[in-house]
């Protein structure tokens, strides 16, 4: 156990690293867990399975029905939620100090023993398939994904397929495939943070108990980030029927990792370009010239740990 920042303390175990920030007078504890099991760890072409699996984690476990799972949490006034991004599955827990041990136990029960009933899998697939239909009609989503397809080669983490391609893949997924993904991918070192009415030693003890049977060896499914040839200008156009407006994205990849010493300077530059209402893009393209409803710039790719990219966008 050691000081992590001026107020936070870093604790760790065989399967986790955690930063704990006690807050005097706080009644609740807020915990976030990050497990390296996002869409990056799915097989190429099957990326939607990560979001499908994460959405099923609060549908009950092999030891607790959905109703019992939720009633146990609600009885203690706790909340547990799950979601994913490209690199991780996340768990957030909001509970009192007294209820935290039970909430943490339930969260790990869901991660290790999700129920994954046929009915729940079917219902979530139906809901998420509709979300892909809406994404296909969204010009901003289509523009950003087309931009990334220009930068990165297929079947690499930063390459984004068309929404309807993801939907077609999702519709063929089965309960057995989801169960295999959870068993295969939900492992490795967990990154955690805890803030509120909790001491570092107490949180360390709770995490050691919760991860006692956690598979510590990470899933080794290395997927290289391979760029397309961007030595010359490349363009892509996506037609979205029925839309009168359009969205554009332009930018480039940046061959530096998120922990590179120059990232802070790059982030400041991107923020000055398009980080808020007082930035250069908003003051010129929108406010002065009236050419766009909105415009902004972003620096992304941090979750993959090896390369970032930036873009400026406008509607």
Secondary-structure map:
Elements: E1 2-3, E2 9-13, E3 16-22, E4 28-35, H1 48-55, H2 66-75, E5 79-84, E6 89-96, H3 100-112, H4 118-136, H5 139-151, H6 163-170, H7 175-185, E7 190-196, H8 200-210, E8 248-254, H9 263-274, H10 280-288, E9 295-300, E10 308-314
Parallel strand pairs: 3-7
Antiparallel strand pairs: 1-2, 2-3, 4-6, 4-7, 5-6, 8-10, 9-10
Stated plainly, the CATH topology of the largest domain is called: Cytochrome Bc1 Complex, Chain A, domain 1
- Give the fraction of residues assigned to helices: 25-40%
**CATH homologous superfamily placement of the largest domain:** Metalloenzyme, LuxS/M16 peptidase-like
Structural domains: how many: 2
Overall strand count: 10
Measured distance between first and last alpha carbons:
49 Å
What does this structure look like?
The chain has helices at residues 48-55, 66-75, 100-112, 118-136, 139-151, 163-170, 175-185, 200-210, 263-274, 280-288; strands spanning 2-3, 9-13, 16-22, 28-35, 79-84, 89-96, 190-196, 248-254, 295-300, 308-314. It has 315 residues and is an alpha+beta fold. The protein has 2 domains: 2-140 and 148-210, 2-Layer Sandwich (Cytochrome Bc1 Complex, Chain A, domain 1), CATH 3.30.830; 243-314, 2-Layer Sandwich (Cytochrome Bc1 Complex, Chain A, domain 1). A 7-stranded mixed sheet has the order 1-2-3-7-4-6-5. It starts with a strand and ends with a strand. The relative contact order is 0.16.
């Amino acid at each position: 156990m050691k000081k992590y920042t001026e107020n936070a303390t870093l604790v760790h175990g065989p399967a986790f690293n955690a930063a704990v920030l006690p807050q005097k007078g706080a009644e609740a504890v807020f915990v976030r867990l990050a497990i390296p099991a996002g869409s990056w760890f799915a097989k190429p072409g099957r990326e939607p399975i990560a979001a499908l699996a994460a959405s099923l984690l609060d549908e009950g476990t092999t030891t607790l029905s959905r109703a019992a799972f939720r009633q146990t949490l609600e009885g203690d006034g706790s909340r547990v939620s799950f979601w994913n991004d490209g690199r991780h599955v996340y768990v957030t827990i909001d509970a009192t100090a007294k209820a935290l041990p039970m909430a943490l136990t339930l969260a790990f029960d869901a991660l290790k023993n999700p129920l994954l009933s046929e009915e729940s899998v079917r219902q979530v697939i139906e809901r998420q398939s509709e979300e892909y239909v809406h994404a296909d009609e969204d010009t901003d989503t289509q523009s950003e994904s087309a931009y990334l397809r220009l930068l990165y080669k297929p079947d690499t983490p930063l390459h984004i397929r068309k929404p309807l391609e993801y939907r077609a893949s999702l519709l063929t997924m089965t309960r057995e495939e989801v169960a295999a993904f959870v068993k295969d991918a939900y492992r490795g070192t967990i990154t955690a943070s805890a803030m509120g009415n909790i001491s570092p030693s107490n949180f360390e003890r709770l995490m050691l108990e919760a991860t006692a049977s956690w598979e510590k060896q990470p899933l080794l499914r290395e997927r290289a980030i391979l760029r397309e040839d961007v030595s010359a200008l490349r363009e892509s156009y996506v037609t979205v029927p029925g839309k009168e407006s359009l969205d554009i994205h332009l930018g480039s990849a940046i061959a530096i990792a998120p922990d590179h010493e120059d990232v802070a300077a790059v982030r400041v530059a991107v923020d000055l370009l398009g980080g808020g209402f007082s930035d250069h893009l908003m003051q010129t393209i929108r406010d002065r010239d009236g050419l766009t409803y909105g415009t902004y710039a972003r620096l992304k790719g941090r979750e993959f740990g090896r390369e970032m990219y930036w873009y400026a966008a406008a509607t």
